[in-house]
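Researcher: Please predict.
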Amino acid sequence: MLNSRIEQMAHRKTFIVEHLDPELEAWSSLEYRFIAKESDAANADFYLTSVPKELKLPSNLQGATGLQIEHRGVEEIYADRKDRVCLLDPAAKKELSPEDGESFDVFLFGGILGESDRRPDDSISLITNR
């Protein structure tokens, strides 16, 4: 039984949103809570990273099922395995495919959640290219 648990954890996927704002708006907390709930239901992990230590989580996120808070950023956490992190960039030239699940363990949401049009001044460097 222990071996099957270890194998299951090895194939578990992680979804990440880097929270780069000094505060957390109500709409963001709703999105984060929903992502956490869906991730948990899919037996995946959901991390909110780069959360300032002084940020007080809204009550709807405190103790939310499936939500894990991390003060470090993705580049620090996954410094030794950047090649396993997939940036989900809405402007990417290649669409995500089921086969990508074999290549990546971590999926990082890029851009601003809920924003369908990119602003011209937005620039995101692919974490795997550094």
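Model: Helices lie at 2-10, 26-41, 74-77, 100-103.
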